Amino acid sequence: MPEPIPAPRRRAGRALARGSAALALAAALALQPAGGAAQTAAGGSAFAAPLAAPAGPADFADLVERVAPSVVGVAVVGRAAASRAPELPPELRGTPLEEFLRRFFGEGRPGREVPLPGRRAIGLGSGFISDPEGHIVTTHHVIGNAERVTVELADGREFPARVVGADPQTDIALLKVDAGEPLPHVRFGDSDALRVGQWVLAMGNPFGLGGTATAGIVSAHGRQIGAGLHDDFIQTDAPINPGNSGGPLFNTRGEVVGVNIAILSPTGGNIGIGFAVPANLAQRIAGDLRDRGRVERGWLGVSLQPLDAELARALGLQEPGGVLIAAVEPGSPAARADLRPGDVVVAAAGRPVERPRDLAGAVAAARPGTTLALTIARDGTRSERQVTLGEPPDARAAARRERERREAAGAGALGLALAPRPGGPASQGGAEIARVRPGSVAEERGLRQGDVILRAGDRPVAGPRDVAEAVNAAREAGRPAIALQIQRGEAHAFVALPLEQRQGERAADTETGSGN
User: Fold this and answer.
1) DSSP string, 318-385
2) N or C end of the chain: which has fewer CB within 10 A?
3) What are phi and psi of 419, to 5 degrees?
4) pTM for this structure?
5) What is the dihedral of CA 15, 21, 24, 30, to 10 degrees?
6) Whether 265 is catalytic
7) pLDDT at residue 133 greater than cutoff 90
8) d(CA 442, CA 411)
9) Do the annotations mark residue 243 as ligand-binding?
10) Annotation-wise, does 245 bind a ligand?
11) 108 annotated as ligand-binding
């Protein structure tokens, strides 16, 4: 079976292949002979009564006109992946030729994986504006490790976009543009209310062509395509192609019911099997990214395995329903709620649990600190346990690393390495410049090692963290520069450092908050 492939990140040429196309009409024409209707031998009409018109909209023109201004194209520039040089044949290893390659090509000698300096990868995708402030929902695999993201609106305007956050587990990402005015936007609908056979409209930027609308129906829901914990997708036959990823899937009311994410195709093009993240999940993830910069998920602290009929009988259960707890982590929420290996979880929050992913999904959908009701079977009897969920240990570590990275990157992107001010009274505050990167904007503006930063933007500086936070706040506010008050010896002066991205510097260092 072909593997599902991401719909974007594949750039096609603007020139389309030209050639003849044969159009097959799916309607048969009933020609009536002159002089009246044809009659059967029994005297009845030879033509069946016309079929009733199919239910649904006559067309989607009004719907497209209403929602199209909120659909955007997303262009991404990032550094190309590392490349591995071909291996030398075994008989040439250890010879003068290998030494020659090492001396003249350094780390790029055969067999070594090295980055390609100066190379840029370009990706194209889609997205939609979810509020008038300019937040844009797209997919994580569209933006990847972006160095620069540009959003093109339906009216042709282009804006640089800031990556607010991204969630690889659900492949949802959130961007922000500052247009200086409220932007047209769409709202989410209830994806749980979707029925197989309902009309849907997919919009986006396939093959980089620009705003495109395609229509189809909901082919299935709850599809699993091997995407991990949140493997629960809407399937549609509305044509989705490379570049559509991140674009919205609308119902006939103009509500976003899904985020187009992948296609199943042996050729990479549309064959009528596309997948979308359900809107109810996408809306929650986008809200977390907007409010916190990362997604908060609950943690139970158990290992699970499926429960088949033989194992159920061995555990004294009448039915094989539920999932088996194989192990419980010491000190975890499950341990504190007295869950044990051998317990069978048959329901979570009142909903039946039939597979491990059902329980894992219910836990992940809840926030840390909330209480989840679990129905368990133990020794042939059922009982209900209230479990207060925790935060996954890896998420706590990731959040700490992200805070430290952002604090360091705020000043680091300007070419400054800062340290607490030594020897001065606490009342003086300030952060000392420990190093200035050669060629950076800080060096160009005359800053030196030993200078002390007393104020950054509108806030006094008590230490390096204050400078980093001020720089990040200025970037998020869209300011072109930040003013630093500098003390050098007995002299004081203000210096303005530009915040615009410079050639070769990564915007992601200070502008992403993925929390991954």
Assistant:
1) SS--SEEEEEE-TTSHHHHTT--TT-EEEEETTEE--SHHHHHHHHHHSPTT-EEEEEEEETTEEEEE
2) N
3) -140, 155
4) 0.59
5) 120
6) no
7) yes
8) 10
9) yes
10) yes
11) no
For 15-36, letters b (16+ CB in 10 Å) and e give: eeeeeeeeeeeeeeeeeeeeee
Residue 171 marked ligand-binding? yes
| Mean pLDDT confidence for 132-159 | 91
Burial class, 400, CB count within 10 angstroms (exposed 0-12 / middle 13-18 / buried 19+): exposed
Q: Whole-number mean pLDDT of the chain? A: 76
- The catalytic position among 141, 219, 237, 332 is 141
Q: Residue range 257-278: average pLDDT?
A: 87
* Alpha carbons 419 and 444: distance in angstroms, whole number: 21
**Are residues 456 and 471 in contact, defined by beta-carbon separation less than 8 angstroms?**
yes
- SS3 state at 99: helix
Q: Name the token pair of 369.
A: 């600190």
Distance CA 162, CA 178 (A): 9
Q: Which of 163, 79, 227, 167 is nearest to 398 (CA)?
A: 167
Phi first, then psi: what are they for 436, rounded to 5°?
-120, 125
Cα–Cα distance list, 376 to 300, 307, 338, 352, 383 (Å) = 14, 13, 11, 11, 6
d(CA 65, CA 71): 11
Supply 473's token pair: 């706040």
What is the b/e burial string over 166-183, where b = at least 16 CB atoms within 10 angstroms of the residue's CB? bbeebbbbbbbbeeeeeb
- Whether the per-residue pLDDT at 118 is higher than 90: the answer is no
pLDDT at 472: 80
Q: What distances in angstroms separate CA 259 from CA 145, 188, 214, 392, 423, one per listed residue?
A: 20, 10, 14, 26, 56
Show the domains of the chain with their CATH numbers: 1-7+60-81+116-295 (2.40.10.120), 302-390 (2.30.42.10), 394-511 (2.30.42.10)
Residue 80 DSSP code: P
Quick check: is 171 catalytic? yes
Selecting among 245, 332, 440, 514, the annotated active-site residue is: 245
126, 167, 171, 358: the active-site residue: 171
Q: In which band, very low, low, confident or very high, does the pLDDT at 82 lie, cut at 50, 70 and 90?
A: low
Of the pLDDT bands very low, low, confident and very high (cuts 50, 70, 90), residue 169 is confident
> If we measure between CA atoms, which residue out of 177, 184, 192, 155 comes closest to residue 365?
192
Predicted pLDDT at 12: 36
Q: Is 245 a catalytic residue?
A: yes
